[in-house]
Design brief:
It contains six helices and six strands. It is of the alpha/beta class and 153 residues long. The longest helix is centred in the C-terminal third of the chain and has 15 residues.
């Protein structure tokens, strides 16, 4: 099963891109979408807006396609196959900065273009699950959070 999650906001461009891939047969298996507050409702898979927890879907998924949020940490820790896609329409493009930061310290696959998801999925399916390259991300994450806080102030 492929699980697509956009978190608590909206990311219709990602939902639509994955729905089109599912409809074209380019994805290896059924798709479950968590669409948040988005307007687009996929037609090539089951969907829901919100649940108290998506742990079960993450656990059962063979592949996760996620926005650039905190779910990425969980996926790296679990050594799950995933593609992260930055939702560039939110809050000063913070997801792209976050994913670039983690991408430089891990082997994860990410993009800021939903139309590149198909190519990213193809790469991830023939690769080992992403892993952290740094022995500890804690100092780097704290530094990153300070930079983000300073920019918001």
């Amino acid at each position: 099963m492929i699980f697509v999650t956009v978190g608590t906001t909206h990311f219709d461009a990602l939902i639509r891109a994955v729905d089109e891939l599912a409809g074209s047969g380019r994805l290896p298996g059924p798709v479950v979408f968590q669409i948040g507050s988005g307007q687009y409702e996929p037609v090539h898979g089951a969907f829901f807006r919100f649940k108290p927890s998506i742990d079960q879907e993450l656990s059962e998924a063979d592949l996760v396609i996620t926005h650039g949020g905190a779910t990425v940490f969980s996926l790296l820790a679990q050594r799950k196959r995933f593609v992260a896609v930055a939702n560039t329409s939110l809050d000063g493009n913070h997801q792209a900065r976050f994913l670039a930061f983690l991408g430089a310290r891990s082997s994860m696959t990410w993009t800021d273009a939903p139309d590149e998801v198909g190519a990213c999925v193809e790469r991830v399916l023939v690769s080992e699950p992403a892993r952290l390259e740094a022995p500890s991300l804690a100092p780097d994450l704290l530094a990153y959070m300070r930079v983000c806080n300073n920019r918001m102030a």
